[in-house]
Amino acid sequence: MLILIVGAGRVGSAVAKQALEAGHEVSVLDQDPLSHEQLDKDLVDTWEDAGGRFTVGTALEVDALVEAGIEQADVFIASTRGDNTNLVVAQIAQKRFNVKRVVVRVADPARAAWYAEQGLQTICPTQHAIDLVREAALAPVA
Q1: Which residue spans traverse the membrane (predicted)?
Q2: pTM of the full predicted structure?
C-alpha cells in the first residue's frame, strides 16, 4: 500500500515513520528541502535508505503530486500547517486522482465538520482539545 503524505513537519514525519515501520510504501511531499531532516531524525540510516521517498515540491501543483506518486497512492494524508492547503490538496487527491482514502488535518472545528460531511476524513486537534475540556468539566470532582 502506498501512503502519500503532504507535509514533513512533526505530524507528517511521525506518521510517515510509523507507516514505513509498519511495512507500507511511504512517499512524503514538502516544499522545504530542509524538512527532510525531520524524516531522518532518529533513524539509523537515511529516510531513503530505510525505504521512504521524499519529493520537494508544492502540493498545490499537480506535477509535484504526480512526481510524489499520487497516481499510485492508496492513502493520502494532508498534514501541512495550513488548513486551506490541506483542504484543497485533499480534494484534489479525492476528486481528481480518486485516492481511496483521504485524511486531512484541519485546525478549525467548523471547517473540519463541514468537510467531513463532504466525504473527507478530517482530523481536528482543536476539536479534540475542546472535547477533552468538556469531558473534564463534566467529570465529578473528587
Answers
A1: none
A2: 0.90
